[in-house]
Design a protein that fits this description.
Structural class: alpha+beta
Largest sheet: 10 strands, mixed
Radius of gyration: 22 Å
Number of strands: 20
Distance between the termini: 48 Å
Helix content: 25-40%
Strand content: 25-35%
Length: about 400
C-alpha cells in the first residue's frame, strides 16, 4: 500500500489555509485518516453527456488513484442505489446515490458541530465512513454512532473503518429514527438531506446539545441548519450556509413525470410575473421558494416552439404555476386552491425590501408539531410548517 501521508498533509494544509480547519485536533484527524481506504472498490467520475466513468482501485495507477482520492471534490461511489465502479464495464448513465463528500464541506460541518472531549455523537448517513473515521480519531471510537440505510454501503464503510483501526458503533437502518439505545447524544450530524429535522433526533439529544442537518428538497435551495436543543423539548437556531446532500431515501421526492400539459390545462388566473423565475437559479431565492411553497417542485421545460417554461407543481394540493416567456417578459398562469407563484413572489419581494440578507440570518425553531422559519425585520418572511407525514 502506498504511503499517503504527504497527500494527507497537503490536504490538511489546504483546508487550514482556507479557514475550513480551525482547531489543531481536527487537523490531526485529517493528517491521520487515509481517505483512499474509504473509496473502495472505486468511484465514478463525470464523463459528459450524463455518463459516469468508473475508476477502480485495482485498475488505476496508485499515483493517479491518490490524486483522485485527495482531490477537493465529492466523489460518487454508487449509482442507482446499487451500482459500484467495479461492476460497471465502462461509462454508464445513472443517478448518484452515495458519495464521499468534498473534504472541505466535511470539515466545515465537523468544525461547526463543536464536538469536544467526551461528547457522544450520532451520525446520520455513514456513506463511505470517512467523516466517521475523522470523528473516531478525534473523539474516540466508542463515542461515535453512525447509521446507514443501505446495507451494501454500510458493509463497505464498516470494513474500511475496521481497516483504518476504528471499531465504532455502525448500524444499518433508517437514520431518521436515530438510535434510542445509545441516546442521549451531545451532538447529531446528518450527511444526507432532510425535508425537516425529525423530532426523534430532538428527543435523543441532551438539552444544550447541537443538531446539524441540511434541510430542503431543491438542489439549489438547501441550507445547513444548526439548532440547539432546549430543556422544554424544542430546538432553536439558525442556518449556517448553503449546502447540498443527497436526500434521505425515505424522504426523497418523486420527480414530476407524465403529461405536464394536463397538469396546467385549467388556469384560474393569468397575469404578468413581477419576479422572473431565473431568480430561482440562485441559492437564496431558491431557499426562500422552498419556505414559501414547501411542497412545490420546479420543472423546467421547452414548448414545441422552443419557448422556455418554468412550472411549479404541488401535487398534494393540486396546484400549479406555469411561467411562460414572451416578448414582454414572463406571464404566469396559476391553477388550484393555492397561488404558488403569488406566495413565492411575495417572499422574494419582501426579501429584496430588507436588503437581501443571506441564509445566515434565517432562524429556525423545531417543535414536535412544527418547524418555524423566519427572517428578522419582515413579518412577511415567517413561515410555520406543520409536521405531516
Amino acid at each position: 500500500m502506498t504511503d499517503t501521508s504527504p497527500e494527507r498533509q497537503a490536504l490538511a494544509d489546504r483546508l487550514e489555509a482556507a479557514g475550513t480547519i480551525r482547531t489543531p485536533a481536527w487537523r490531526k484527524a485529517v493528517e491521520a485518516v487515509p481517505r483512499e481506504l474509504f473509496l473502495n472498490p472505486g468511484v465514478f467520475l463525470p464523463a459528459g453527456n450524463g455518463l459516469w466513468r468508473p475508476v477502480t482501485v485495482a485498475g488505476t495507477d496508485p499515483t493517479e488513484w491518490n490524486e483522485i482520492a485527495y482531490s477537493d471534490q465529492s466523489l460518487v461511489t454508487q449509482l442507482d442505489n446499487h451500482l459500484t465502479a467495479d461492476q460497471a464495464p465502462g461509462p454508464v448513465p445513472g443517478i448518484p446515490t452515495s458519495s464521499s463528500t468534498d473534504p472541505r464541506l466535511v470539515l466545515e460541518m465537523i468544525e461547526e458541530l463543536e464536538a469536544g472531549d467526551g461528547d457522544l455523537v450520532l451520525e446520520i448517513g455513514t456513506g463511505t465512513g470517512y467523516s466517521t473515521a475523522l470523528m473516531c480519531h478525534r473523539l474516540g471510537e466508542d463515542n461515535v454512532t453512525t447509521i446507514e440505510v443501505d446495507p451494501g454501503v454500510a458493509a463497505r464503510a464498516d470494513a474500511a473503518l475496521e481497516t483504518a483501526g476504528f471499531s465504532t458503533w455502525t448500524v444499518t437502518g433508517d437514520g431518521l429514527l436515530g438510535l434510542p439505545r445509545r441516546a442521549p447524544y451531545d451532538r447529531v450530524i446528518a450527511t444526507c438531506g432532510v425535508r425537516r429535522i425529525p423530532y426523534t433526533w430532538v428527543r435523543q439529544t441532551r438539552p444544550g446539545g447541537i443538531i446539524l442537518a441540511t434541510l430542503g428538497s431543491l438542489t439549489t435551495g438547501t441550507g445547513l441548519a444548526k439548532v440547539t436543543v432546549n430543556s422544554d423539548g424544542t430546538a432553536e437556531g439558525r442556518f449556517v450556509f448553503h449546502a447540498s446532500f443527497m436526500q434521505a431515501r425515505s424522504q426523497a421526492v418523486t420527480p414530476i413525470a407524465g403529461d405536464l400539459s394536463s397538469r396546467v390545462a385549467y388556469a384560474d388566473s393569468v397575469r404578468r410575473a413581477v419576479v422572473a423565475p431565473a431568480d430561482l437559479d440562485q441559492p437564496m431565492p431558491a431557499f426562500l421558494c422552498q419556505l414559501a411553497a414547501p411542497a412545490a417542485q420546479i420543472v423546467r421545460v421547452q414548448a414545441s416552439d422552443g419557448t422556455p417554461r418554468v412550472n411549479l407543481f404541488d401535487p398534494g394540493r393540486e396546484s400549479f404555476a406555469e411561467l411562460v416567456l414572451d416578448d414582454g417578459g414572463w406571464t404566469v398562469r396559476q391553477g388550484g386552491p393555492v397561488r404558488l407563484w403569488d406566495d413565492v413572489e411575495r417572499a422574494l419581494l419582501a426579501w429584496d425590501e430588507i436588503g437581501r440578507p443571506g441564509i445566515g440570518e434565517v432562524g429556525l425553531r423545531v417543535t414536535e408539531h412544527s418547524h418555524t422559519y423566519w427572517l428578522p425585520r419582515s413579518p412577511v418572511l415567517r413561515w410555520k410548517h406543520p409536521v405531516v407525514g
